[in-house]
Design goal:
This protein is an alpha+beta fold. The chain contains one helix and four strands, in the order H-E-E-E-E. A hairpin with a 2-residue loop joins strand 1 and strand 2. The radius of gyration is 26 Å and the shape is rod-shaped.
């Protein structure tokens, strides 16, 4: 009887170790995924910020990291080309050339 109890405890401990290994692997994958998502979001935000700062001279650039569309007079919509897609709505003062961010959002498919 004691032998069966010891064997059941050993099997229980072995299954606990297996579950802990799986949880550790899943946690590592989760952290790597979060890190990659943060890096991609920061890269998309930097691309949009670059387009925002150089809105007047974007036509001179050879490679544009954003899609730019005029919504109305003085209002522009800038969308990042790479995922995650970030959209920023700007008001551009034509006299001073200052762009003011009205709002932003992350676009989902």
């Amino acid at each position: 009887m004691i032998l069966a109890w010891v064997i059941s405890l050993l099997l229980l401990c072995a299954s606990l170790v297996i579950h802990l290994e799986r949880l550790t692997a899943l946690r590592m994958i989760e952290l790597k995924t979060i890190e990659m998502a943060q890096q991609n979001f920061i890269a998309a935000e930097k691309a949009v910020l670059d387009c925002e700062k150089n809105l007047a001279t974007l036509s001179l650039l050879a490679e544009n990291p954003c899609f730019i569309r005029a919504v109305s007079k003085g209002i522009w919509l800038i969308t990042s080309k790479h995922k995650p897609i970030i959209q920023v709505q700007l008001a551009l003062d034509e006299q001073s050339g200052v762009a003011t961010r009205l709002n932003w959002r992350q676009a989902f498919e």
